[in-house]
Design brief:
- This protein is α/β, with parallel strands linked by helices and 238 residues long.
- It is built from 8 helices and 10 strands.
- The strands form 2 sheets. Strands 3-2-1-4-5-6-9-10 form an 8-stranded mixed β-sheet, with helices on both faces.
- It is globular.
Length: 238
């Protein structure tokens, strides 16, 4: 069975992506405060059989850093076939409300963590080809008002733009057997999360996103490494 690492797997969208891959992959799921909630969700969604190839890795990047995750993962596996990395924070602090500590926190979580985590994960990705998928937002492509009703903070927009550049340039830094593909997400209808009225007509379902992710992991060879795909009902471009 193929092996997949997912960052931030307890998130409301990402947990659905994890569940959609449960039959095809042995899953290594990084979570923090909601690990037990994630376990219950996956168990109930799967039907409670208990025959799940899931490893929850409780890890707090703010408290433990990134590099210490290596030993936790190494105790569970020596290889990975794929990884999913996310942009974890969509902060909406106003410009006048920004303080230095907030800027440091947003940039650390949204930029330092993904970059360092990819470096930590690549030694596990020894197959040909291995795949890293990076989930990002649309603000560097469509501007800070792309999500009507949301007002991303300047550190959020800046770190997102840096992630877009990272996706494009990663092929120049990571081993040749590892392919990286970015996915910039438009609105998604996530259960228990209310959307602004303007978004309801264009929002994708979690099932649509999960299906796309399955297809991407299975067919990543269709895309050159460093590709950024826009996933939206309004447009689908690479």
């Amino acid at each position: 069975m193929r092996k997949l690492f997912i960052m931030g797997a307890s998130g409301k969208l990402v947990r659905h992506i994890a569940f959609s891959l449960i039959r095809d992959y042995e899953l290594f799921l990084q979570c923090n405060k909601m690990c037990e909630e994630l376990r219950k969700f996956l168990t109930l969604a799967e039907g409670g059989s208990g025959n799940l190839s899931i490893h929850l890795i409780r890890h707090d990047f703010m408290e433990e850093g990134v590099e210490s995750l290596f030993s936790k993962l190494r105790s569970l596996t020596s290889r990975l076939d794929a990884s999913i990395i996310i942009e974890p924070v969509f902060d909406q602090t106003s410009f006048n409300g920004m303080r230095e500590e907030l800027v440091k926190r947003v940039v650390y979580l949204n930029l330092v963590v993904p970059i360092t985590l990819i470096r930590v994960l690549t030694p596990f990705m020894i197959g040909e080809p291995s795949v890293i998928v990076v989930l990002v937002d649309l603000t560097p492509l469509k501007g800070s008002r792309v999500y009507e009703g949301l007002n991303p903070s300047l550190p959020t927009v800046a770190s997102s733009a840096a992630l877009h550049t990272m996706i494009k340039e990663l092929p120049n830094y990571i081993p040749r057997n590892v392919k990286v593909v970015g996915v910039a997400l438009d609105w998604v209808k996530v259960p228990s999360k209310k959307l602004p009225p303007e978004a309801t007509s264009v929002a994708m379902s979690v099932e649509e996103v999960a299906r796309f992710m399955r297809e991407l992991l299975d067919g990543a060879s269709r895309y050159p490494s460093g590709t950024l795909i826009v996933l939206s009902r309004r447009e689908k471009t690479a």
